[in-house]
Amino acid sequence: MDASNETTERTDLQRPLVDQKPPSDVGLESVLTESSLPYRRRVYLGACIEMKLLFRLALPAILVYIVNSGMSISARIFAGHLGGKELAAASIGNSCFSLVYGLMLGMGSAVETLCGQACGAHRYDMLGIYLQRATIVLALVGLPMTLLYTFSYPILVLLGEPKTVSYMGSLYIAGLIPQIFAYAINFTAQKFLQAQSVVTPSAYISAAALLLQISLTYITVYVMGLGLMGIAYVLTISWWVIVGAQTLYITKSQRFRHTWTGLSWRSFQGLWSFFKLSAGSAVMICLEMWYSQILVLLAGLLKDPALSLDSLSICMSISALSFMVSVGFNAAASVRTSNELGAANPKSALFSTWTATLVSFIISVVEALAVMAARDYISYVFTSDAEVAKAVSDLCPFLAVTIILNGVQPVLSGVAVGCGWQAFVAYVNVGCYYIVGIPVGCILGFTFDFQAKGIWTGMIGGTLMQTLILLYVTYRTDWDKEVEKARKRLEMWDDKKEPLQN
């Protein structure tokens, strides 16, 4: 080797990695720890890398969650054009059914943490075991839920809801009961795919199911004349179409030959331990989802329950649609955080957390401004009632604030899932939502007679408190310790033991 070539080779070896490769080909941790680069340059290059990874995960996940939420919203739209009582019945039915939705989604999120850890440890065979075990546990949990919804009419009446709305809502709920077990399979499969950064196929499947649902609902309502029950039946069928397509994709695709090795008796082992592990995740998610649905239930106790239910359910539908965008970033943040912690990259985990939070916040501000600009017209998508439209317009400022808060809080919850903080967040949710938010809302709404605005003000207060606590905890997190916790879990796998969260 001549002197000039030797000098060139030595220079290439000494040159920083980020100068030799484009940002997309360089690891995030190597960029953030490159001391030869100015701080601003590191942040810029890190943002280029993280934004590409983040949106690759978040955008398909957002589409999945929007479509899933859109299925419920489209059902309300069809019910709203049948009549005010039908809209109120579908709204209260969907609100009550969110109990099982939140429960199944929450318990399924434990799969996301464990499958993410298994991917990081290259224990790919465990992903399929976790998927089966979670599905069994969720299906067993669904059995008592069917009994609860079978007797939904007396329960709604006992809660003080109007008898006519309760009766129609109970019929609507009866048509959704088979959907419980579709949730049990769908959410575990969804988390199984997300942990492997496979989200686009689920988006295609969900989009196709939404189109099918809209088409079939139109036929059952306007051609066959099945009314509210037809809407419920089609919604249930659509969810089972999603389940069937996802199951075929996972079991037949060669893409998962290492993570899905077929049915195994090992999935029946440790069901109780897995249930306890899932319970923390379920409590965390359920407390968040039920919080907004309680607002709808409380509206049924106000002076004009039909108007309050209709206006609040429309606002909640819009909020839920916006919330799905943040939930997409929640999923992306969870995957990115767990992956980086598993790879022993504390700076990358920190950077991923704040990047996802900032991006979601900016998007939520844009959404809130759009809602305020369309406040006088937005309700006509759901109903032609001018009185309801005016009530929705009056509530839009509260809706805008809620959308902005929901742009931050779900992302931080995703970070909590990635780190295994579900139990802590559950305690925070109980304190902020149910000790502060709901009591304050009831006092303002009923005692001070601010009606729906008072209830919603209390709810916003609880959400704001929770968001501030999560921001502080995330800011104070020692990411090196989080990496050490992840390493200890991986050592358990080396001993052929299954990982459990601390």
Automatic annotation (TrEMBL):
Membrane topology annotation: Multi-pass membrane protein
Q: Which family does it belong to?
A: Belongs to the multi antimicrobial extrusion (MATE) (TC 2.A.66.1) family.
Where does this polypeptide localize?
Membrane
The family database entries (Pfam families) matched by this protein are listed as: MatE (PF01554)
Transmembrane annotation, as ranges: 87-115, 136-159, 171-189, 201-224, 230-250, 271-291, 311-333, 354-378, 398-417, 424-448, 454-475
Question: Any idea which UniProt keywords this protein has?
Answer: Membrane, Transmembrane, Transmembrane helix, Transport
Q: Per the record, GO CC terms?
A: membrane
InterPro entries for the chain: MATE_euk, MATE_fam
GO BP, sorted A to Z: xenobiotic detoxification by transmembrane export across the plasma membrane
What is the first-listed, main subcellular location in coarse terms? membrane
What are the recorded GO MF terms, alphabetically? antiporter activity; xenobiotic transmembrane transporter activity
Highest taxon listed in the record's lineage? Eukaryota
Which residue ranges are recorded for the region named Disordered?
1-26
Q: What species is this protein from?
A: Raphanus sativus (Radish)
Q: What is this protein called?
A: Protein DETOXIFICATION
